[in-house]
Predict the structure.
Amino acid sequence: MIFPKGFLWGGATAANQLEGAYNVDGKGLSVSDAMPGGKIRWGILNSEDFDWSIDETKYTYPNHKGIDHYHRYKEDIALFAEMGFKCYRFSIAWTRIFPQGDELEPNEKGLMFYDNLIDECLKYGIEPVITISHYEMPLHLAKEYGGWKNRKLVDFYENFASVVLTRFHQKVKYWMTFNEINSACEIPALSQGMVGATGGSDKQNVFQAWHHQFVASSLAVKIGHELNPNLKIGCMIVYATTYSFDSNPINQLAAMQYNQAFNYFCTDVQVRGEYPAYTARLFKENGVQPLEMAEGDLALLKAYPVDYIGFSYYMSGVQNITSEDSETVEGNILGGVKNPFLEASDWGWQIDPMGLRLALNELYGRYQVPLFIVENGLGAYDTVEADGTISDDYRIDYLAKHITAMANAIKDGVDLMGYTPWGCIDLVSASTGEMAKRYGFIYVEKHDDGSGDLSRRRKKSFDWYKTVIATNGEKL
Ligand code: BG6
């Protein structure tokens, strides 16, 4: 048997992309509630004049209804249980607990929802894996405080993390402090609550905001471990294996520097507890002046590193700075140069299972802490046949190849805790706000024009994944 006993097979989602019920039971507005749907989303968020205003006459807001998991979570968890999930990764919507973000007392109805959700998982022996914050800070904190560049966010997050850890630590062992914390270099709006109008295009702010998030993350680890030393509290990054286009040393250097800037900067701080040696060069390249730090910050980072690394892996990238005419592709958060050896998804993300084996070896070799693949999957167009079936063989193929890569990495000696494919039930896409971009084992009858009765349906991959879990990854 290759996968260890107790391997955490499951699936992953995020509150803002599936719960819906965006204004129910005292929930406040979050930044994701202000994000228009459709392929225009990225452009709007990156524009200098977007100020987080919600305008329903101009845009649609698919996250507002999501797939109504808020009211259908029992049905959804039952389907996860039917597949044999050992764990379920979900996030807590900050705005259900602190609607504005700067209140002192939490919203009990919000806490009750997660109490019920956790109990429903435990009823089936499914281990909850919680992301404390996944792309959804309270809108008030983004608009009035300017997002994570403001030090006050550390206190607000500390209060939020303390409330949820205190409430749930006896039922939930696995936590992550921020989703894809390193994504801020490309999408500070989602990651740090900063759009152009609130300083998101200024690298000084992005790095300052990161420092605040690092401190906040260490405070969460401190609180969690004081409550229960057995809790496992991880960081979470988006990892894109990065190749040099050719053997030209200039491109090799570019790939290494890209790795440092994108893949490793945040984990270097969060796992090793200190800013890496290349920080000064990175700051210089980005025009960043020394960051403002409070006394005790660096000691806190050193004293409370994370217990494991959670990461998403969808695709790899290529660095080529010697040739200007290289073909380009889209990608998860970052696009770039086309790799002639790889095929791409319908959304242009380059599919690379071997890159996952490389990622696992690179991360484990660098840090020697357990790894957890908390997102992976294929966003694709699915077709419901006349008889109601959905034959998503392309998804099965993608996942099987990535699981094989995981097995090989385990044979390489990597300590891998678990695997939670992204969007185990169809949900709203983060980058485009589309429903048409589906990842799930479970199809949800909802479409981009808003139609659909939200009914759930098992895809072919549902039974396939059930077998994978039942055989602990032996039968793919
Ligand atoms: C990750 C995010 O980057 O990728 C998720 O953590 C997101 O929130 C996932 O949904 C897939 O991206 P997309 O844009 O296809 O939804």
